UniProtKB/TrEMBL annotation:
Tree of life domain: Bacteria
Family statement drawn from the similarity comment of this UniProt entry: Belongs to the ATP-dependent AMP-binding enzyme family.
Protein name: Long-chain fatty acid--CoA ligase
Residue ranges occupied by any AMP-binding enzyme C-terminal domain in the UniProt entry: 422-497
InterPro entries referenced in this protein's UniProt entry, alphabetically: AMP-bd_C, AMP-bd_C_sf, AMP-binding_CS, AMP-dep_synth/lig_dom, ANL_N_sf
One Gene Ontology term from the biological process aspect of the record: fatty acid metabolic process
Length: 516
C-alpha cells in the first residue's frame, strides 16, 4: 500500500473500504470520514489533472498543519505526481528557491502564508491555489471552487518505486537539498512503525509536528491513517490548547520534537491535565533532556525516542515500551525491516558495538537519492546501498543504541575524541541551564578546544565556576570546554535545529586560540 492507496488508489478493486464511516481527520469542529476524504481526494486529483499535472510533476504546499495538507498529499499521489511540502517559517527568498529547485508547477497555500506567496515566482510555477477564497492572489485559484468543477479522477498507476515526496532538509550548513521519498519508502516506514507499535483503528492522534517535517508525516500520522484511526492536525502548538485537547478528546497518541515535550510539561496546566488516554508519545529530530523524559514518565506516559532522518522516511530505530523506563533517552533498537552497521576504516560496513562509530543504514525505507544532486547522492552511500547517516552511534550490550553526536560536530582535543552532545546532555541536567551548545575552536596547544554557549533559565543565577564544577563532576577533564559564554538564546533554523556554523563563527571571533 502507498499513500495513494490508503483507501484512495486508482485500481477499482482497491477501493473497497473497510470502514468508510470512520472519522479520518478532525480539525476545529470539522470531521471528515474516510469515504468523504476519498471523495474529496478524487475531486482534487481531477482538478490537478485539469490544470496540467501529470505523473512526475511537482505540486507544492505552503501552510500550517491542516486537513487540506492531507487532501493535497493524497491527490498529488493519486495523479502520480510528487508532493512538496514547504516550511512556512522560511523567508520569501528561501521559498522561492525551493519552488524553483523542485520545479513545482502548482502551489497550494493557506491564508497564513499570503505574504510569502506574494512577489516574484519561478517560471515553472503555473498555478497558485488558495485554500480560502479571501487569500486568492491576482490570477489565483480557489481550492473549493476547483474541487466543485472537477471531472473524473485520473486513471494513473502508481508503483512502489515511483517518487511520492520531496522533503527539504533543514540546511544548517548551506542551502537545503530535497530528499526524494518513494511510495515504497513511505509504505515500508509505515510497516516498520506498525511492527514496533500497537497502533489501532480506534486511536485518536494529534498531529503536532509540522507536516513539512519527516516526524510530522512518518511517525504516528501515516501509520494511524493506515490503520483507520483518526488524526487531528493542529495549526499551532499552543501548550495549553494541546493539553486541553488531550483531556477533552481522549487523545491516544502524538509525535513531537523534544522542544514541544518540554513546552508541554512546563505549562501551568500540566499537573492537572488528564493524560490517562495517552498510550504512545513519540519524539525525534534531536535528543531530549533526561529531566523532560522523566517528567512524562513520572506521569505514567512512556515517551519513546525514535531515531532517524529524512533520508530514511524517517525511522531507523525506536525505544520500546518495555525498555524505556531503564533507557529514558536512548534511541532504542532498529526497526524490523532496517539493517544497521558501522562504517569501518576502509569505508566498509562492519558490526556495530560499544565503540562509537558512524552509523550506516540499509532498508526498503531508505531513499534513492537527492533531487537533481547525483554527486551528493553518490557520496551519501557506501557500496551503493548503505546510507551514511553522519551520526556517531554506540550500541550497548543489550542492543540499545545511543546517538553520541554528529560526525561533523566531533572535536579532537589533545588527541582525544570529544562529543559535544555528551557535554550538552550533562549541562542541561543543571536546573539553572535551559539550553547548551558546544562547538570547537582552533587551539594552538590542543588542536581544538570546546566552547560552551549556555542559556540560563529565567530568574536563575549561574556562575561559570558552578557550571564548570557540575561538568567536572560528571565528565573527564579533557571533555570540559575551555571557554564558556552565557547567552540569551541559541541561533536556530526554521525547524528549530541549532545553527552550529553560526556558533563556530562566533566562537572564532570571540576567543583567542593560543596555549593556556
Amino acid at each position: 500500500m502507498t499513500p495513494a492507496d490508503f483507501g484512495l488508489g486508482s485500481w477499482p478493486a482497491r477501493r473497497a473500504r473497510i470502514s468508510p464511516g470512520r472519522t479520518a481527520l478532525v480539525q476545529a469542529g470539522r470531521t471528515l470520514t474516510y469515504a468523504g476524504l476519498a471523495e474529496r481526494v478524487d475531486r482534487l486529483a481531477a482538478a490537478l489533472t485539469r490544470l496540467g499535472v501529470r505523473p512526475g510533476d511537482r505540486v507544492a504546499y505552503l501552510g500550517v498543519n491542516d486537513i487540506t495538507v492531507f487532501e493535497t498529499l493524497f491527490a498529488t499521489a493519486r495523479c502520480g505526481a510528487i508532493f512538496v511540502p514547504l516550511n512556512y517559517r522560511l523567508a520569501h527568498a528561501e521559498i522561492h528557491y525551493m519552488l524553483g529547485d523542485s520545479g513545482a508547477s502548482v502551489l497550494v497555500h493557506s491564508p497564513d502564508t499570503d505574504e510569502l506567496v506574494a512577489g516574484p515566482r519561478p517560471d515553472t510555477l503555473r498555478h497558485v491555489i488558495a485554500t480560502r477564497p479571501e487569500s486568492c492572489p491576482a490570477g489565483g485559484l480557489d481550492f473549493e471552487a476547483e474541487l466543485a468543477a472537477a471531472g473524473p479522477p485520473p486513471a494513473t498507476e502508481v508503483r512502489l518505486e515511483d517518487p511520492c515526496l520531496l522533503l527539504y532538509t533543514s540546511g544548517t550548513t548551506g542551502r537545503p537539498k530535497a530528499a526524494v521519498l518513494t511510495h515504497g519508502n513511505l509504505t515500508w516506514n509505515t510497516v516498520n512503525q506498525l511492527a514496533h507499535l500497537d497502533v489501532l483503528g480506534t486511536d485518536k492522534a494529534l498531529c503536532l509536528a509540522p507536516l513539512f517535517h519527516c516526524v510530522g508525516l512518518g511517525q504516528i500520522t501515516l501509520p494511524t491513517l493506515f490503520k483507520g484511526g483518526s488524526v487531528e492536525p493542529m495549526a499551532k502548538v499552543d501548550p495549553g490548547a494541546v493539553l486541553a485537547r488531550i483531556g477533552e478528546a481522549g487523545i491516544t497518541s502524538f509525535s513531537a520534537v523534544p522542544t514541544m515535550l518540554e513546552m508541554l510539561c512546563r505549562h501551568e496546566s500540566w499537573d492537572r491535565t488528564d493524560l490517562s488516554s495517552l498510550t504512545c508519545v513519540l519524539y525525534g529530530g534531536s535528543p531530549v533532556a533526561e529531566r523532560v523524559a522523566r517528567a512524562w514518565l513520572d506521569r505514567g506516559v512512556k515517551v519513546l525516542q525514535g531515531y532517524g532522518m529524512t533520508e530514511a522516511s524517517p525511522g531507523v530505530s525506536m525505544a520500546t515500551h518495555e525498555g524505556t523506563l531503564a533507557h529514558p533517552v536512548a534511541a532504542g533498537v532498529p526497526h524490523f525491516f532496517t539493517d544497521v552497521a558501522a562504517l569501518g576504516p576502509e569505508l566498509t560496513p562492519e558490526p556495530l558495538g560499544g565503540t562509537p562509530a558512524e552509523l550506516l543504514v540499509r532498508g526498503p525505507h531508505v531513499f534513492p537519492g537527492y533531487w537533481n544532486r547525483p554527486e551528493e547522492t553518490r557520496a551519501s552511500f557506501v557500496r551503493d546501498e548503505w546510507f551514511r547517516t553522519g551520526d556517531v552511534v554506540r550500541v550497548e550490550d543489550d542492543g540499545w543504541a545511543h546517538v553520541v553526536d554528529r560526525v561533523k560536530d566531533l572535536l579532537i582535543s589533545g588527541g582525544e575524541n570529544v562529543y559535544p552532545a555528551e557535554i550538552e546532555a550533562v549541562a542541561v541536567r543543571l536546573d539553572e541551564v535551559d539550553a547548551c551548545a558546544v562547538v570547537g575552536v582552533a587551539d594552538e596547544r590542543w588542536g581544538e578546544a570546546g566552547v560552551a554557549f549556555v542559556v540560563v533559565r529565567p530568574g536563575s543565577r549561574l556562575t561559570e565556576a558552578a557550571f564548570r564544577a557540575h561538568l567536572e563532576q560528571h565528565l573527564a577533564r579533557f571533555k570540559v570546554p575551555r571557554h564558556v559564554q552565557f547567552t540569551e538564546a541559541l541561533p536556530v533554523n526554521a525547524t528549530g535545529k541549532i545553527r552550529r556554523v553560526e556558533l563556530r563563527a562566533r566562537a572564532a571571533e570571540t576567543f583567542t586560540n593560543g596555549p593556556a
